[in-house]
């Protein structure tokens, strides 16, 4: 089977110019691949660079070295070296991302925040809003909240809006950064079901899950990040 | 393939061929002093580019060069005209340039009084560009103006009031409507939220964000406010002393700044 | 008609020949580009600005010894301005003057176009205070010239839009902008819009002189002159509900005449020659018996 994403030689070092230019190496020589229909989980203690890897795969962090080859529109693209415009195109069509926290936009309703990725892809608004409502109700977000901007929602409510927004599209690659962290057991199991459906649909997933139950329920493979730790770093 | 997906495909293929605006090695000097130096970038349809830097960094000089208000000392700026042809902006005839400015482009000034006619009604301010391109039906002009006032959240009852009687936020929204009424493809914005109260700013930003998404505008926005850049732009260009010190995806640049100056800028934001 | 002895200490028609030649060149250029404002080196005249110095210079430049001159102000031949300009040319050119429209070869006017249609060979000279129609919204002369050059006339409609928005109809009643031969927008300057249709395809040559602003523009005979408007608010001239109280003329421009201090008034022809000619033909209005002619 052709992998959806192949990372090799990936490295990330933060250079702190404001602190005399000290360098903080986080990842060296990371290599792994993602298969369609499978969920890989990044393993390792916190601070080992799991989030950094996820962010590099989304183009949110710059990789200092290595390749991130992604199948996009039938061709292979190195995301680590792609133009900003190509990265945006990849995000629109190929790589989805569910972050840990919802970035709240003032005055935009929960329903519209969730529908936005579909509208951006050219789906007409009523249809996008319908699917948005379906997902929000599946995640048990009370309907009275749908038309409010999520700024005043609780952490768990915001996170469910965030998950719905991440899952609404059918990106072939989906990155999940602790999507279940602030959810109760009922909604956690809804998310587990949604991940299973994504797998069935052939989506390649990569996630960070601190909850052992969720991890064991969704993981097909574990990618141990400690193997990518820079030498001399005590983790 | 759905109709919508097909639409996106065509749009992409069209936009993939050529950028909307192409800036190459643009330098503007004032005698021995540098306004901006060796700036190059492209912008594609639907893209929002934020030019960020502190005052004196050359961002306004750059904006003026690109928008044909200030001829660069060297370098070229080309624009893809509606017929698809790339043209050097400073080789255009005066007439072509002016038609471009009032139909295919918009310019939102920091001070709305610079972009509005303060002594004619809101309706005429919105309708002026349409009249300039030959619309001669009062009723239709008025309904278009009413529609646009609604879109920028100005009470349509105020259509016959002069902007002199409007608040700062309303004036800025009126200026935006006046610019967007001809469905421009490229809009320049010079600190559009500058000088407004924070709550007024938030409303304006939200409005701009919606309009930019709905209309698929390409926008070049000059701002010193990183929150504005984060909310509105896809890409950022960080300028210091007239030069571009960093250029990339907005979230990448703000979350993982590389250049020393960008790191300083990002770390200087007050967290609320 | 009366001829007068010319005061010989002045050159014919007051201006020296070089100046007249300069003005004629400007006039020729203006005729060649209908509606375009041609700059000219306007001279000091022996009357203040605002008294028709532009029109007087144009008249002086085209006047010949055989011309017959008529001067009107608000349509009347007997107002101060008209009388003094007529006397001026009697003294400095010794030409014949008349009050009869049909007999005149040159008619200088401040506001009105005579009611009787002008004929081939006649010249109508307008005194213009402000020649620039775009000045209302764009005070920069450099910019308005560019706008004329590039045919950017959207602003004129902004002005008309404002009129309708404020009054429900186009309330501009004088200096109503026109488009000449589909090209230049021109200000007919203070003539009432009632007279705009008379400019269109006129058989006479129409010349416009602005002395203070140093501009000359022209409408050659048979020139298309279209008043600007909106599709749904077409151009209309004023209507008067009564005919002239003296001669009974309809569809002419009327002036109000106050008769007493108890609100009594009447409306009479603004074109005094037209009114007199009609009365001479025996036509009468409602009040013609009560008022001395």
Automatic annotation (TrEMBL), chain A:
Alphabetical list of Pfam families matching this protein: ABC_tran
Q: Ribosomal protein among the record's keywords? A: no
Q: Where is the ABC transporter domain?
A: 5-235
The UniProt keywords, alphabetically, are: ATP-binding, Lyase, Nucleotide-binding
| UniProt keyword Nucleotide-binding present | yes
Lineage: superkingdom: Bacteria
> Which family does the similarity line name?
Belongs to the ABC transporter superfamily.
From the Swiss-Prot or TrEMBL record, give the protein name. Answer: Phosphonate C-P lyase system protein PhnL
Q: Which organism is it from?
A: Phyllobacterium phragmitis
Gene name tied to this protein: phnL
Automatic annotation (TrEMBL), chain B:
Per the record, the similarity remark reads:
Belongs to the ABC transporter superfamily.
ABC transporter domain residues: 21-266
Which keywords does this Swiss-Prot/TrEMBL entry list? ATP-binding, Lyase, Nucleotide-binding
User: Matching InterPro entries, A to Z?
Assistant: AAA+_ATPase (IPR003593), ABC_transporter-like_ATP-bd (IPR003439), ABC_transporter-like_CS (IPR017871), P-loop_NTPase (IPR027417), PhnK (IPR012700)
PANTHER family named in the record? PHOSPHONATES UTILIZATION ATP-BINDING PROTEIN PHNK-RELATED
State one Pfam family annotation: ABC_tran
What is a biological process (GO) this protein takes part in? organic phosphonate catabolic process
**Name the UniProt record assigns to this protein:** Phosphonate C-P lyase system protein PhnK
Q: Which SUPFAM superfamilies match?
A: P-loop containing nucleoside triphosphate hydrolases
Q: Which NCBIfam families match?
A: CP_lyasePhnK (TIGR02323)
Show the SMART domains listed in the entry. AAA
* Source domain of life: Bacteria
Query: GO molecular-function annotation terms?
Result: ATP binding; ATP hydrolysis activity; lyase activity
Automatic annotation (TrEMBL), chain C:
Q: Which residues form a coiled coil?
A: none
Q: What is its EC number?
A: 4.7.1.1
**UniProt xrefs under InterPro entries:** PhnJ
One of the record's GO molecular function terms: alpha-D-ribose 1-methylphosphonate 5-phosphate C-P-lyase activity
Would I find Iron-sulfur among this entry's keywords?
yes
Q: Example GO biological process term?
A: organic phosphonate catabolic process
- Which controlled-vocabulary keywords does the entry list? 4Fe-4S, Iron, Iron-sulfur, Lyase, Metal-binding, S-adenosyl-L-methionine
Swiss-Prot/TrEMBL catalytic activity: alpha-D-ribose 1-methylphosphonate 5-phosphate + AH2 + S-adenosyl-L-methionine = alpha-D-ribose 1,2-cyclic phosphate 5-phosphate + methane + 5'-deoxyadenosine + L-methionine + A + H(+)
Pfam families xref list: PhnJ
Q: Belongs to which family?
A: Belongs to the PhnJ family.
Functional description taken from the UniProt entry: Catalyzes the breakage of the C-P bond in alpha-D-ribose 1-methylphosphonate 5-phosphate (PRPn) forming alpha-D-ribose.
Task: State the protein's name.
Answer: Alpha-D-ribose 1-methylphosphonate 5-phosphate C-P lyase
